[in-house]
Design brief:
This protein is about 55% helix and about 5% strand. With about 280 residues, the chain is mainly alpha-helical. Helix 6 runs antiparallel to helix 8.
């Protein structure tokens, strides 16, 4: 599911984990997810900002509502709570119901709102009713579907070209910059040309920079699902999931078959769900 997340949605999850750590909480809860979504420039952040939601007040409310952990988690990853995992699942449903093949901050905030016990809990947390947030997010989604009058044709073309350059991978600022330079008539391309910056000169330099050491790096997966025939094994340990996330699907299947005692062509006989 995480491969469907937009860059802004992934960043919101990273911020949610940072917020949970900073507040000394032992799990990433839906409240932290809202804290992550309230920051940045995604649809969720714009909706909450337009409704007058204060980030500082929201953080203080979350801090007062959730118990602090006595364990030192500064060097470890904070796992998702069951409700947060449910919110992520619901965000996918929100996207599919609208015919979207991606999960943005707009879908994440709608999914998060659905896991609270009642709308009153959302009101106490945000200072506005859940129905108001849903309505504003829906309005902003409708606006974004209309032609963008605040983005030039060259900027729109560069975004599409950058996604094409990224292929099946994640679009980074490197792809975007290469796409901008490819349009030699664009404002940015002409300005960079004065400094001798071209696609040909920039491409090799970008290849030398490890994405993992930049802000373009994606958050490490909290869970990994491995399918073998009709069986699915879910790895819920964040550290193990992060390590497994570096393996190819073939390597994952081989490791699971070995752990289950199955041969190379056998599906294995492990339990359907494991965590």
């Amino acid at each position: 599911m995480f491969e469907r997340f937009t860059d802004r949605a992934r960043r919101a999850i990273v911020v949610a984990q940072d917020e949970a750590k900073a507040l000394h909480h032992d799990l990433i809860r839906p409240e932290h997810l809202l804290l992550g979504l309230a920051q940045g420039d995604g649809v969720a952040a714009r909706a909450l900002n337009q409704l007058g939601v204060s980030l500082e007040q929201l953080r203080a409310t979350v801090d007062g509502a959730l118990a602090r952990s006595t364990a030192d988690s500064r060097g470890s990853k904070v796992p998702f709570s069951p409700k947060t995992k449910k919110a992520l699942e619901l965000s996918l449903r929100e996207a599919l119901q609208r015919g979207h093949n991606y999960i943005g901050t707009e879908h994440l905030v709608l999914g998060a709102l659905r896991v609270f016990d009642d709308d009153g809990a959302v009101g106490r947390l945000l200072g506005v009713d859940a129905s108001e947030v849903r309505a504003r997010v829906t309005e902003l989604m409708a606006d974004s579907a209309a032609p963008d009058r605040h983005r030039s044709p060259a900027a729109a073309d560069a975004t599409r070209a950058a996604r094409a350059l990224a292929g099946a991978g994640v679009m980074t600022t490197g792809h975007l910059l290469l796409a901008i330079l490819a349009d030699t008539a664009s404002l940015a391309s002409r300005a960079l040309g004065h400094f001798g910056v071209t696609s040909e000169s920039l491409g090799p330099r970008l290849a030398e920079v490890p994405v993992s050491e930049t802000s373009d790096a994606l958050p490490r997966p909290q869970t990994v699902e491995i399918k073998l025939g009709a069986n699915t094994t879910t790895i819920g340990d964040p550290e193990l999931a992060a390590a497994l996330g570096d393996l190819s699907p073939e390597q994952l299947r081989a490791a699971l078959r070995k752990a289950l005692g199955a041969g190379p062509g056998e599906p294995g006989t492990g339990r359907e769900q494991a965590s």
